[in-house]
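Bumping my old thread because nobody answered last time. Still need a sequence for this structure:
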């Protein structure tokens, strides 16, 4: 019989914690569940829950977003993208178009979609038009793109891929001198695709407790209890607190599609820099929008990839700063008028904290 949230809280409060513990989560869904359910205020004060690199929209390179805008405006393609991507701003002059949403308002044919199958449908319905699918996301959303490619796409459909892997960012933090956390709650959906075993390096290489969690308060509290108990007992292992969905080896079919259609390469993360072996690149160059549209590589379309002036989204993504510690949070930067990408996506920590009513530091 599974325990209720209150029972897990009672068990956590009963633990003999003597010093502060920092637990990082790397999933926007986890951060949303933690914040909107008020878990931070329910836990003992010694426990600090840190939102980490769990938002693919937030780390999508500025140059990719800018290129998507230019493809829609200059090359007159039909550009489709997941809805969150439309509002992410880039650094341009004040009166220039700074988002796909603004490009759409200016007349570009930009269409939000919720599934790769919608991109396929739009391409089939418009056989005389070039359609570009701007596909940004972590493994969970990149796997369906891989499945789409593996099953074949029409000649007029091209992919502007900005897919990223989750674990390399965590590996980078742990390899640094100041990781900033003592335990890890690993992502549920990513682990469902790639397998929980992918996170064994956290325990085996870095001697840090880790637990995979689902998206209910009960699962998150079970994972929190697990890593806290591991710390107290100094016996570290990878715990799977989401066994209904996650296995050690993950979804073999999804992994096969990823391997068949994509290769792993070094890739830039917005505001963070290049993280080794953290990005997906298409194997089939005929479908690659970067290669098909020759002016994609034009110097005029290159961007610095940095955050806007005063924006601390990169520090928030890496768990170095809480959202409401950014000077722009809630003043210049709000969901209605976002400055940085973390205030745009439903998986961005700033947007989540704002939705949860967290305003000032």
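Sorry it took so long. Here it is:
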């Amino acid at each position: 019989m599974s325990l209720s949230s209150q029972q897990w809280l009672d068990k956590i409060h009963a633990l003999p914690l003597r010093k502060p513990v920092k637990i990082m989560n790397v999933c926007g869904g986890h951060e949303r569940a933690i914040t909107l359910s008020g878990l931070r205020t329910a836990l003992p004060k010694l426990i600090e829950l840190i939102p980490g690199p769990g938002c693919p929209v937030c780390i999508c390179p500025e140059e990719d977003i800018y290129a998507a805008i230019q493809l829609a405006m200059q090359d007159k393609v039909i550009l489709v993208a997941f809805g969150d991507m439309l509002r992410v701003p880039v650094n341009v002059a004040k009166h220039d178009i700074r988002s796909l949403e603004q490009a759409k308002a200016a007349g570009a044919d930009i269409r939000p979609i919720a599934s790769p199958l919608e991109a396929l449908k739009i391409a089939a319905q418009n056989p005389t038009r070039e359609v570009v699918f701007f596909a940004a996301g972590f493994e969970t959303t990149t796997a369906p793109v891989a499945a789409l490619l593996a099953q074949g796409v029409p000649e007029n459909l091209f992919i502007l891929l900005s897919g990223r892997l989750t674990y390399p960012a965590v590996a980078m933090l742990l390899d640094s001198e100041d990781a900033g956390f003592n335990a890890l709650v690993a992502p549920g959906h990513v682990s469902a695709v790639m397998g929980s075993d992918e996170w064994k390096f956290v325990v085996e290489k870095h001697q840090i407790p880790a637990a995979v969690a689902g998206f209910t308060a009960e699962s998150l509290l079970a994972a929190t209890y697990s890593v806290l108990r591991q710390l107290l007992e100094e016996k570290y292992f990878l715990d799977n607190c989401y066994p209904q969905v996650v296995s050690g080896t993950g979804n073999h079919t999804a992994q096969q599609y990823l391997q068949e259609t994509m290769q792993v390469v070094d890739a830039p993360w917005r505001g963070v820099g290049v993280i080794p072996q953290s990005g997906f690149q298409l194997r089939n160059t005929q479908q690659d929008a970067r290669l098909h549209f020759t002016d994609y590589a034009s110097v005029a379309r290159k961007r610095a990839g940095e955050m806007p002036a005063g924006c601390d989204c990169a520090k928030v993504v890496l768990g170095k700063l809480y959202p409401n510690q950014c000077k722009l949070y809630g003043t210049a930067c709000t969901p209605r008028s976002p400055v940085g990408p973390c205030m745009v996506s439903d998986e961005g920590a700033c947007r989540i904290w704002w939705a949860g009513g967290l305003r000032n530091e």
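The chain has a mean pLDDT of 94. Let me know if any region looks off to you.
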